[in-house]
Structures are given as structure tokens and as C-alpha cells.
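tool_call predict_complex ligand=iron/sulfur cluster
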Amino acid sequence: MKIDNPPPPTYAFGYKTPPQPGNEINGLGVKENVRARHVFHDPGGGRLPWHGLDEFFSYISIWRIVKHILANVWQLRRQDGPVHRERREVNDLKAMTAEIKAKAKELGAELVGITPMIDEAVYDGREIPFKYAICIGLSMDREEMSTVPHERAGIEVMRAYRVISRIAIELGEAIRAMGWPAKAYGNPNSTDILHIPLAINAGLGQLGKHGSMISKEFGSNFRLAAVATDLPLATDEPVDLGVEDVCVNCRRCVLDCPPDAIFNEKQLVRGEQKWYVNFDKCIPYFVKTYGCAICIEVCPWSEPGRGEWLFDKMMGRRKNAAEAQRT
Ligand code: SF4
Ligand code: SF4
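tool_result ok
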């Protein structure tokens, strides 16, 4: 997909006194394996250093974006709730896991995976008293998303978040009706958890150079939500789709990012070498363009049908390389 004439990276918003750099808050260059901190979207309970830009983002959002956000916030009052008195005991872990995955699909999820909850996926100062995360993914309309970085794409992103929140909420309600605690996390703006590390562990895909997830089915053209629960479930494993093999040689997202925010090399972030996006360059452009999303749409994995093809190609290359080494 080609991007025609994206708006230039000049900003309508400026701080009189610049806040603490977002990259510093995100732990860029930090050797210790510390927890992530909220930086932009306000989780409540105090103003974040970048609150002003977040507020500006709300002010400039058009009504068709705002209506999805409001509907999402309204439905998320059901993200938690009373647990049924009678508990359904789990005697067959495999059968219960299959039932939960089928339920998630029936509610509309297109990707489902389960992983143990880990501290690294919980924001600093937050606690998640649940053993597992059921991670779900929902694709976005590619035609709408091909309009990035303009408002039509921003509307589609918020529509997808509203729908995937509803799926997570209803899945959580179904689990609570079985007598097991569960809480849905569907709000992209202010949750306790980082969705990407959980979804990677749950086998939904891998991290790409553009800092977003890549799945075989939808590339990066999808959104995430999760249900945290104590319901005993069998967990999935991370997958290797060959994303690393493609990203080390590809620079498409790097070249197409207007504010030049994507690092071409992995960075040390909170004790881990990983793909990382320069927050301080990305986020003002992200705000100006109702959520930008150029990098995820130009990624070759996001081209419909291309993920499967790339996966086969990468696995074929590895097999050939292994065979060549043997001979
Ligand atoms: S979302 Fe951020 S990193 Fe991605 S293309 Fe836009 S400005 Fe660049
Ligand atoms: S555009 Fe290329 S480098 Fe960027 S995430 Fe996709 S495959 Fe990786």
C-alpha cells in the first residue's frame, strides 16, 4: 500500500515547557527490567506529564470518533461485576479451553490465545489479581484503513476498539456466570495491562519493527483486547512467524513514517533489546492525524493474504538454509 501526500510533520500543538521526554518515561536505554509507566493516555488518578497533548487529542477528535469512544467507555462499566455463587468445576482443562475459545469466536473475536498473566505486562503501580489473560484480536476494515493518516482510518480504529471491547466484556460476563472471576480490558486509553506482551505470549503474533504486533492472518491491521481471569485454562505458546527475518531487511515503515520515528535497529528498553518507536517524534504526529497508523498499514504483512505467503516464504528459506548447512 502506498501513502499519498501525508500531512507534513509540523505540529499544531506545542508545550511552553516541554514535559519529561516520553522515551525516558518509557524506559529507553534503561538496563533494569522495570515495569512500564503510563505516559500519554491518562489512566485516572493523576495527570500524566503528557496530559496536555492527550487533552488536545480529545478536543480535535471529530464526532464520529468521539461517539465510538463514548460508547466504549459506557459499555466498559460492565468490564467487571459479580461472580455467580455456584462455581462450575473444571475437570477437563482441554475441553474448558476449547469452550472458551469457541465462545470468544462466537462473540466475534478473530484471534484468540491464552497466556499466564506476567508482571512485565502490568503497569507500574497496578496489580492484576488474575492468573491468566485471554487475548483476543479483531481485524479492521482494510479499505477504511487504507485512508491513513486521515480521519476515516481514525474512525475505523475506534470502531474496532468499541467492538472488541464488547467481545471482551461479554466473554468476561460468560466466565463470571460460571462462577469464576474475570475482568475485561478493552479500553485502549487507560488500562492496567500492556496488551502486546500478553498477546505475543498467547501466540497471536510477533512484534514488528514499527512497535506493533504482526499476525499471520491480518498483519498489523487488527486491534487487541483481553480478559483476565482465574478460570483454569491451558495456555498457548509464542509463535515464530518469521517476522524477525523480514524486519531485519525491510525498512518500509521506517521510510514511510513522516516524523521519522521508527528506529531501524532494536533498542534497549527496560532491560530488553527490542523494536521501539521514538515516542517523542511519533505521538505529536499521531495526535495531529487522528491516530496516524501509516506504519501498520504500509507493512507488507498487512496486505490481505500476504501474511500466509510471507510465513511460508520465511519458513522455506530457513529450511533451505538448514539443508545447505547439512550438506
Ligand atoms: S504511528 Fe507513529 S511511528 Fe507509525 S507512522 Fe505514524 S508517526 Fe510514524
Ligand atoms: S514494514 Fe517491514 S520493517 Fe516495518 S514492521 Fe513491517 S515488515 Fe517489519
